[in-house]
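Comment thread on ticket #2218

A.B. wrote:
> Attaching the input chain for the structure job we discussed in standup.
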Amino acid sequence: MGAAFFYHLTQRSQADTLRMLLGKSLENGWRVAVRGTDLERLAVLDKALWLGPEEAFLPHGLAGGEMDAQQPVLLTMGSESLNDANCIMSVDGAEITAKEVGAMERVCVLFDGNDNDALNTARRQWKMLKDAGASAQYWSEESGRWEKKAET
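C.D. wrote:
> Ran it. Output below, let me know if you need it in another format.
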């Protein structure tokens, strides 16, 4: 059974945090679906991931191409696992379910701590998972480094 890790972004950008988490996921041998809510925002993330440091290259693609099934990291708005992902990273308030948390190695929820709507969405998702009995952790970077602040 997997766990959901909530990442409260206050200092690093979404792209930088995603780059770090994706690198660790690929090191673990996981295939990842980055689930978003807006195609334009996913296209911005796609470009940011390609522009990352050469030594931290992240093979990935934006859903809708011929090679979706082969992508180790697929940026998508859908809930279907086109690349046989065993890790989901939710950005921009993309929905997750307790069932997905149980089925995946990991579910990561990245949310902007400076956006009240994003905070409220993350709180709602946390409560939903807690009420469903799913394992979840809350991580904050407020001190300048990632620290676990809560766990269900």
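A.B. wrote:
> Thanks. Noting for the ticket: The mean pLDDT is 94.
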